[in-house]
Design a protein that fits this description.
Mean pLDDT: 91
Number of helices: 8
Largest sheet: 8 strands, mixed
Distance between the termini: 45 Å
Number of domains: 2
CATH superfamily of the largest domain: Glycoside hydrolase/deacetylase
Shape: globular
CATH class of the largest domain: Alpha Beta
Structural class: alpha/beta
CATH topology of the largest domain: TIM Barrel
């Protein structure tokens, strides 16, 4: 398999706390072999009414300019997943672009810029609002035009419900309905999935896997690595509050902090395991693990317990609040870059 890619350059600093391309050709870029990739996540564009999920065109244009500037390889998401499955090395500074929900501004604002820049991307579609002609979303005709141009589509369930909080049969219906509509309306069979709100559970992951999807994404930050759970992959979210060019350069230059043996494995918490006994292991080859710092979205900086040279444990004194909680762990990498591992948990009831 040959990876489709486009040349690109950047630098990065600081931590602060997004699929298949439409162009099959690539511009060669000298790169080191790697086992990781940064995945970017966008939603809306130039929509002041929804600042939490929107990015201005000025900032998006700056992102594209950075990606086209020299030292990155922008991959189509299917190529990334295929390379991971085949255990093939990836170019260093690999980047993937994803967009969620199929808002109208993707078609009117983002797609023309991405097409002009010859950058591949994947669009995860929430199919119910599209099928109901809900204002602010693209139509099936507009999505079909994008599909005919080579844009890759993934599924993001059928409705906007918190998928993982539903019962097993309801989850299956949501997943199957989304795939059926994408197949009937666009003639594509989705093999990539995005969990609504990034909320997942082991049961939901199994249902998605059994439905034939190759990979599924959350909405937690981190660099995707070969050892990362294929059905709860991280993405960096970009919006107006966290989309300035300095932060963007930090993200696209981020290196993996390969976390495995994550506990608890289930991203869905219960009263019995809240607060969770959180921990993860890293490769012993990751040097200077003592420089690691972890942060919780509600509690701030956390106290770490390092077991040997490769195990990180965190004990929380208070239970997580209802809703989503994110943990971000970062440390200096090489050449001024930052290693990054993240996880999201969800406590039902919000």
């Amino acid at each position: 398999m040959k990876l489709r890619r486009t040349n690109i350059h950047a630098t990065g600093l600081a931590w602060l706390v997004c699929l298949c391309g439409f162009l099959p050709w690539l511009i060669a870029v000298p790169a080191q072999a790697a086992e990781s990739s940064v995945v970017l996540m966008y939603h809306r564009f130039d929509n002041d009414k929804h600042p939490a999920t929107s990015l201005s065109l000025k900032k998006f244009e700056a992102h594209i300019k950075e990606l086209k500037s020299g030292a990155y390889t922008v991959l189509a998401l299917p190529d990334l997943i295929d390379a991971l499955e085949a255990k093939k090395n990836l170019p260093d500074k690999s980047v993937v672009i994803t967009i969620d929900d199929a808002y109208l501004s993707v078609q009117t604002h983002a797609w023309p810029l991405l097409k002009k820049a010859a950058l591949p991307f994947t669009l995860f579609v929430t199919t119910q609002p599209v099928d109901m002609d809900q204002p602010g979303y693209m139509s099936w005709g507009q999505l079909k035009e994008m599909a005919n141009s080579g844009v890759t589509f993934g599924a993001k369930a059928h409705s906007l419900a918190r998928l993982a909080t539903q019962d097993k049969n309801a989850i299956k219906i949501e997943v199957k309905a989304a795939a059926r509509l994408l197949r009937e309306k666009l003639g594509v069979k989705p093999v990539l999935f995005s969990f609504p709100y990034g909320i997942a559970s082991l049961e939901t992951q199994k249902i998605v896997r059994d439905a034939g999807y190759k990979a599924a994404f959350g909405q937690h930050s981190g660099v995707l690595h070969r050892v990362t759970d294929r059905y709860f992959l991280p993405r960096f979210s970009l919006n107006d509050a966290y989309g300035d060019i300095a932060r963007f350069r930090t993200l696209v230059n981020a290196q993996p902090l390969p976390g495995f043996d994550v506990t608890p494995k289930n991203p869905m918490l219960t009263v019995k395991n809240n607060p969770p006994l959180f921990g993860f292991s890293v490769f012993p080859t990751v040097a200077n693990i003592g420089n690691l710092a972890c942060y919780h979205s509600h509690f701030g900086k956390l106290t770490l317990q390092l077991l040997g040279k490769s195990r990180v444990e965190i004990r929380f004194k208070e239970p997580f609040a209802k809703g989503r909680s994110r943990i971000n762990c970062t440390m200096p990498g090489t050449n001024g870059r930052w290693r990054w591992f993240g996880m999201q948990y969800y406590m039902p009831g919000d």
